[in-house]
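Suppose a colleague, Dr. K., hands you the sequence of a protein chain of 340 amino acids and asks what its three-dimensional shape might be. Before reaching for any lab equipment, you can write down a predicted structure in token form. Begin with the sequence itself:
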Amino acid sequence: MKLTRKKLLGGFFILFALGILGEFILFEYSVRWLEKEISSTKARLEQQGYTVSYSRVSIAGNPLLMEIRFENPSLKAPQEAWEWQGKKLVISVYPWKPYILTCSFSGDQKVTAPKNGPISLGTLSIEEALGVFTLSSEGKLEQIDFKTGAITSLLGPQVQAVSLKSLSLNMTQLSHPLSSKFTFKTEIAHLESLLKAAPLDYPLTLNIEGELSGYTSKTSFPHSLSQWRDGGGIMNVTFLNISWPPINAEAEGTLTLDKNMYLLGSFSSKITGYQDALEDMVKLGWIKKKKALMASFVLELFTTTDGSGTKQLTVPITLQNGMVSVGPAPLIKLQPLKDI
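The predicted structure, expressed as tokens, is then:
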């Protein structure tokens, strides 16, 4: 009996030792694999014209969870289209899920936006960011799930009043980016300061879902918005919600660009609180009072009342000839986009 117990105890210790040895071998293999992937990814990006740098990289963790830590990482797009500079980036990887990367961005994170974009964003400061990036077996980006607490804009040393809060972005089918799907949610805080209106206690909330489609050009990828447009590119907006009390709007439709780079699109919509919104637009100087009264009269023809007595406007919204029109009433003049 004693001999049998000794054999069992000895076998247990042998299995335990083998388990520890196996974990050590797996950990070391994972470290070597990650070092190789970091090197090959850096080389691939540099071949595509990106500039990649960091002051230090280290790999820590255990066989169940690996962490890659970058100090002062930087990524600059070709032709200096944009640039990201961070303080610290930690990428977490499960060895059995090597193509799912969980990225934690801490410290000072700055993104230099395109200078020739449709609006001047300056430098974007990003706070509390977390991203999950899913790659294919070939290492191509397939999906993004990104969240951040706040994004503020700096024009030179000056911090802009308007900021984005609680932003989330999910994009799928990125291996075919011109057919990708997306969901974007955020709160736009202090927008009233840009409009020179009285401060409000609530932000504008924006929720948009859609997909890109239609691009059929034989070229591999469009180099500008005009090439995307000429190749049949369309953005299908399957759900759009804008809420900024008293107005709340839901819509769906399509967007593209006309030959003069103005937004061109058509939406079906349901809008509540539009009467108060028209009054606010008159106060802000967006439209004249006479035009607002005429628009209100016309829009009343498309208004129904729901069970609670709330007036609901069900009307097409069109973006055409540089103008946003609600039903037959033109309201807001657009600006053309730059051909980036």
